[in-house]
Amino acid sequence: MNNYLVSGLAIATSLALAGCGGSSNNSASTQDTDMDMTPVYEYQVTVVNLTAAQPFSPLAVVLHGSDQMLWRIGEAASDGIEMMAESGDNSVLLDAVAGLPVSAGAGIIMPGTSETVMISTEDMAMMRLTATTMLVNTNDAFAGVNSVDISALANNESMTWYLNTYDAGTEFNSETAASIPGPAGGGEGFSAIRDDVMNKISRHPGLVTQADDSMSALSPWHRFDSIVGKVTVTRMN
Amino acid sequence: MLKSTSTIAALLMSATPLMASAQVIDVKITNLTQGIYFTPILATAHSPEYSLFQAGQMASPELQAMAEGGDIAGLVSIADSIGASSQANPAGGLLAPASYTMVTDWDTGTNTALTVVAMLLPTNDGFVGLNSWTIPEQAGTYTVYLNGYDAGTEANDEIVNGGGMPGAPGIPANPGGNGGMGATGVIAEEVNTMIHIHPGNVGDSDPEGGMSDLDSRIHRWLNPVAKLTVTVK
């Protein structure tokens, strides 16, 4: 398998050089060869929504170094995490990591369905993976795997993690329709005001719903446990 | 439940020179919840023959005192009596939600099992627990997630009335000050008198009455409630 890949790369390189025309000299072709020999680590990332009735907002998947984290329990949420966790919009979060290998999901992942995205890097130091999404029928709940180490994956190997549920700590869990952006509320998404119990990320305490309190716009089936999804990462080459 | 006798303890202590070499560890304890405090923590390394608590068993009076009122003195005495190496109250009081505390360069001696307990506040008799976890021999960093247990010794009435002594009904305090008062009570009797996974707080959103003095939007939790990061040196 490895031999086949190497020879395939060699053919691709010679074709590319042949296509360059007569302008390239020896030193340039040496450089090209070096660049083509740089391995690209490609990964397939599949996220499954395991909830009863919590659509996932579009995914944000990032590869980064071991010294980086997109969020930490006990710290205030970044503006990007706040925006995603309150409204499902991951654009601010993706802008904040623009220099890193990123992959954005194509759309909403409904309960019981999954989405697969690809992500790749040439940098051996970028072997931590973070994937995150909002549970849209909540005030500021988000789910994710946070800086998991994928450096040990060999070709065609997979690793699986469950998605934990976090509270961004940026919006009080009022559960009113006006504050829930998902279809269960149809209300406001992002608000710059931070009015949660504390301005810190924690694990999510869970939902109350109308089953326990009439003040909630949510229904019993919107509840979730500490695990809401699954992510499988497969190295492709 | 404590299963020791002084004879067994003496035998174990005399045998210790033959056992594994001493281990030095760092322990980071993170409160993962949004609205639940940990009362003074007891982290103790002991011989694996012992357990300070076991799910499905009845709580000892010492465990009850910790779970109902946050008093770890009785459990510390037990740990001392079995030759354990203990870290009592490493956070210096309450460990707030989404906060952590560290124990560094802890020489556990020949004790190879780690137990961690602290009361969950505000609850009636809830506690975060790790029971006799084997400390790895190989150097490295290990992560353990801890669940919330119910001591099974008091009804979860969710009335904050200062009742923290063993046997006294009610919750001793709500440190966040973010609940209600004047509740009628969620339940009057403990339904399972053995130690079990805590069913969670119920709460309500009525600050001046209702069935609970706790807030359903703040004082619930989903397990795990704590994360332990153990670094074996």
From TrEMBL, chain A:
Residue ranges annotated for the Spondin domain, each copy included: 55-171
Signal peptide: 1-18
Native species: Neiella marina
InterPro entries registered for this protein in UniProt: Spondin_N (IPR009465), Spondin_N_sf (IPR038678)
Keywords: Signal
Gene3D superfamilies, sorted: F-spondin domain
Lineage summary: Bacteria, Pseudomonadati, Pseudomonadota, Gammaproteobacteria, Alteromonadales
UniProt protein name: Spondin domain-containing protein
Keyword Signal found: yes
Pfam (any one): Spond_N
TrEMBL record, chain B:
Pfam families: Spond_N
Signal peptide: 1-22
Keyword Signal: yes
Annotated ranges, domain Spondin: 37-155
Entry annotated with the keyword Chloroplast: no
InterPro entries referenced in this protein's UniProt entry, alphabetically: Spondin_N (IPR009465), Spondin_N_sf (IPR038678)
Keywords: Signal
Descriptive protein name: Spondin domain-containing protein
